[in-house]
Amino acid sequence: MDARLPIYELEGELVARLKETRRLILSAPTGSGKSTQVPQMLLRHGFLEHGQVVILQPRRIAARLLAARVAQELGVPLGRDVGYQVRFENVAGPETKVRYVTEGVLLRQMNEDPKLGGVSALIFDEFHERHLYGDVTLARALDLRPDLSLLVMSATLDLDLLEAYLKPCAVLRSEGRTHPVRIEYAPPDRGDAPVWEQAADAFARYVDSGGEGDALIFMPGAFEIARTIDALRERDASKGFLLLPLHGELPPAEQDAAVARYRQRKAVVATNVAETSLTIDGVRVVIDGGLARLARHDPYRGINTLLVEKISRASADQRAGRAGRTAPGVCVRLWSEREHLARPAREAPEVKRLDLSEVALTLKASGVDDLKAFRWLEAPGAMALGHAEELLADLGAVRDGRITELGRRMLAFPLHPRYARMLLAAHELGCVREAALAAALTQGRDLLLRRVDRETETFREQRFGGRASSDFEMLARAWEWAAKNDFRMDACARAGIHAVTARQVASLRDQFLGIAEREGLETRERPAVAEALRKCILIGFSDRVARRVDEGTLRCELVHGRKGTLARESAVRQAPLLVAAEVREVEGKELNTLLSLATAIEPAWLRELFPEDLGARDHVYYEPAGKRVYAEKWLCFRDLALEKRRVEPPPADEAARLLAAEVLAGRLELKGWDAAVDQWLLRVNFLVRTCPELGLPQVGDDERRMLVEQVCRGAVSYRDIKDRAALPVVRSRLAPAQQALVEKHAPERLELSNARKPRLTYVADGPPYVAARIQELFGVRDVPPVALGRAAPLVHILAPNNRPVQITQDLAGFWRDHYPRVKKELQRKYPKHEWP
């Protein structure tokens, strides 16, 4: 217990409010002590007499380090009174009263024990990060155990949203005792140097100007952290500093080293794991690159992305607060103030940007059949939910919206449903051990280092290369080599293998095999399992079947109309048909959809494993270059064409439809569709409006399209239609008697009293009109009506130069009232004409 921490100013009120309402929202700034001290307050004040407090943390590293800190403060061994549990690791026991967990762990516990036996209180820490499992676990807790003591904590919370969701609840705010932090921004013209070089320069300026204390530098990922440390070593200002990385992929000992206290000054270069929960004592300057790697899932394309993005203003404030923990500090932001104001207020919650299939299966298992009706804090998009249910149905985990027995068995494995399904299929195909290794190889950091020298590449090719039908096979060879060398750092470095990851893979594989044995799966080693494993991968990733477009490139077409490029380093670059376990969007000169962890498959396996998803279909398409329609017979797996065979001639109806679409879009000119055709259609529609009793059919957009199709009937190319007459086809839509009605009541020409017959022009809306020079109208006092005498045509009276003089339906009135003035003007301009 550290009573100097600001959170203790609220202890009395916190305890009282929690006893009164059992639900509490606590907003307290970074460094106030809430993550470590609030659980101890509950322990001291009797909240845990009949159970434990479970503290949900967004990240594994925070759960482990916070548990270790609290155990140290209480003077107890880690794993007894205080423990933690993260995916694949449980350091807690029956005596544990304070248990830090990652969010998915508790949701699985709720499925196994909906009443959460042995739990008295739940704390949702750093809830502002809005992790998917945090949202879902909070909703389940409210439904399953209304009697629980429940706290939601963070430094930056959307209090209005949460208070409305949790009511009745109490709200406590702590201003804390953080010291002032001066914010400095980079100048707008800072150049285009890499962010790690900018950070190293900012560090050097701070130290050289006499800045005190330790430094915390934020970078988006492990690669940028390594480059930053290299850049810092090149600066004289870093002499005497310990340079320490901090990110989730480091082994525990190196993570501990980054947060430990030293007599020597240190500079910690961290991802956003240091943004919340973890307190690094002694930090007086924060240098913020303003970037983070954020996972997203695009349900429209079924693609996962992990792109470097700009952090929100809320995240920037969290990071800045790290500089004012023990004394006044400085935060240097490597972007301009103008850029800062343009950033979003906070990141979108994960429920709106991640793949929902794993959490959807967990909810289905708990009885939530209708995911749309679930008690979401903020509901995900309908497309994302639909994609999750579609995938679960493809895997056989869900049928008609309800979880199947297979789906329940999949939940035994703490894995994405794809890999859980793969492990269950491995039991039937006799390759459980191999499938367990394949699943373990994908759960953490990449086993093989990406940027290696030529010597290491040659070593890999010699040791792990050769013929392979799957990238998993190549990874398995590398891992087995590391295992034979006892995962030694020097041996792994020579092969470009991440030694810590290789050791973690061994532990994970053993855990998966242990679960498999408990579930009754056959785990004995069997010979000749390579083909069986490839089938298992296909079963888990059937929606990622891909076909190479051509032999000369790595371009592929996938199920669901997607496209991508096979990774250049893939072992199956020559395979015409494959399945990709990873489909992700990556950054380069442009965004590219990359297919990796690929496995070659045989078409016969699709017929064997998914007979209902194979079928023949006709594909008819218009080819712009040749201005021609072609037809092919496709053999398809779902909507992906596996084989294509040309068919001649193309189906007449489809050919006519496609050619007509090009005509209507203006890309092809149908010369026979001239003004006479358009006027005929306008005449028909004019009578439909004015004389409905004649019973003529209207010509709208659909009818026009059908008429163009009729003109194109029997053609397969533009050459066949470009000179076709259209008027006979258009007129033939009406029976002869109907055509006669059109000629009579909407005539093409109007007979005047002076025996002239000017052309009538029909328009889409309004009466038709005649246009005639004034001399052609001398002696005409009335214009005969049309459409059963209901419509008087307009008369456009033109001067000798064909420019309008007057538009009227009352010729008699024109001659009487206007002609004298018009005559005077026109006679002066055109004296050679007669002007009676």
Task: Describe it.
The protein is α/β, with parallel strands linked by helices and 836 residues long. Among the domains are: 6-173, P-loop containing nucleotide triphosphate hydrolases (Rossmann fold), CATH 3.40.50; 181-352, P-loop containing nucleotide triphosphate hydrolases (Rossmann fold, 3-Layer(aba) Sandwich), CATH 3.40.50.300; 665-745, no CATH class; 762-829, no CATH class. An eight-stranded mixed sheet has the order 4-3-5-2-6-7-1-8, with helices on both faces. Strands 9-16-13-10-12-11 form a six-stranded parallel sheet, with helices on both faces. α5 (132-144) links the parallel β6 (119-124) and β7 (149-154). α4 (103-112) runs parallel beside α5 (132-144), α7 (195-208) crosses α8 and α23 packs across α25. The longest helix is centred in the middle third of the chain and has 20 residues, at 499-518. The protein is elongated.
Question: Nutshell version of this structure?
Answer:
The chain is of the alpha/beta class.
List keywords for this structure.
single chain; about 850 residues; alpha/beta; Rossmann fold; eight-stranded mixed β-sheet; six-stranded parallel β-sheet; 29 helices; elongated
CATH class of the domain at 181-352: Alpha Beta
CA-to-CA gap between the ends?
Answer: 115 Å
DSSP strand tally: 30
* CATH-derived architecture of the domain at 181-352: 3-Layer(aba) Sandwich
Largest sheet features: 8 strands, mixed
Instruction: Give, in spatial order, the strands making up the sheet with the most strands.
Output: 4-3-5-2-6-7-1-8
Shape: elongated
Class inferred from helices and paired strands:
alpha/beta
Low-confidence stretches: none
* Strand residue percentage: 15-25%
CATH topology of the domain at 181-352: Rossmann fold
**If you compute it from the alpha carbons, what radius of gyration comes out, rounded to the nearest whole angstrom?**
38 Å
